[in-house]
Design brief:
By secondary structure, the protein is of the alpha+beta class. The protein has one helix and four strands, in the order E-E-E-E-H. The chain is globular.
Length: 66
């Protein structure tokens, strides 16, 4: 499933390609996500759900988890 997908990671992940991070990509009208150290495990979500999550992160709703 992950062949041909152009994965993107945050610039906050660092320049080291061996560093574990979450990667995202658009795929067939949805958003797919994976952890770089477990590339075969892929989660699919909608653009709307990801947008709501990102807005929550920006608003600080998940700060208590860090």
């Amino acid at each position: 499933m992950t062949d041909g997908i152009n994965w993107q990671k945050s610039s906050f992940s660092g320049a080291d390609n061996n560093q574990s991070c979450v990667e995202l990509a658009p795929h067939r009208g949805a958003i797919v996500m994976r952890e770089s150290d477990e590339p075969d495990v892929v989660v699919t979500t909608s653009v709307a759900k990801l947008r709501a999550f990102i807005l929550g992160v920006k608003a600080g709703e998940f700060d208590h988890l860090l």
